[in-house]
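Every protein is a chain of amino acids, and every chain bends into a shape of its own. Below is the pair of lines this work produces for a single protein:
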Amino acid sequence: MDFKEIFLHYFGIFIYIAMALSAMAGLACIAILNRNVKRKSMGSRANSEAFLEEVGTYLEDKDFEAVMELCDSPPYWNKAVPQLIMVAIERRNLGVTKVRRLLSERFEREILAELEYTTSWVTTIVKTAPMLGLLGTVTGMISAFAKIAAMQETGTDPSQLANDISFALLTTAYGLAIAIPLVVLGNKINVQIGKLQDSVQDDLGSFLNDFERAIRS
C-alpha cells in the first residue's frame, strides 16, 4: 500500500473510535443530567406539599432555626427548594423583594446553569456525530475512487471497492444512529428540566408568601 492508502486506512479507524467515544460521552451526559434532575426535584407534588406545610408551620411560629434544620437534614441536602429556602432564611434581613430576586438569581446560576452546561454537550455531540459520519463517507469514497483510478495498473479486486463503499455508508448510518437517540433523550431531559423549573417556582412562590407574613408580622 502507498502512503495515501495507509493514511485513509488509519483515518477510517480514527473515525470509528471518535464515533464510539461520541456515543459513550453522549450517554454519559444524559445519565448525569437525569441523575441531577432527580436529585434536585422533590420527587412528587405530595412530597413538596408535605415539606412546604411543615416549613409553613415553623414560619407561623417564626422558628427560623427549625426551618434551617429541616432544610439541612439528609433527605433535603441535594434538593433545590430546601437549599434555596436556607438562603432566604439566612438573608431574611434583606427584605422580601431582595430575597425573591436573590433566590431567582441563585436558582438560575447554581442549578439551571449547571444543567444547561451539560445539555450543551449533548447538543454538541448530536451535531458532531453526523458530521463524523459524513467525514467517513467522504473518506470511503475517496479511497474507492483512488482504487478505481489505479485499477488498470494494479488490477484492484472489485471487492475492495465494495469495502470502501460499505465503510462510507456504515459511518453515515452510525452517525445517525448516535444522533437520533440522543435527540430523543435530550428532548426528554429538557422536558424534565422544564418541569423542575416550574415546580421550583411554584414551591418558592408558596414559601415566599408564608415567609413574607412571618417577617412582617
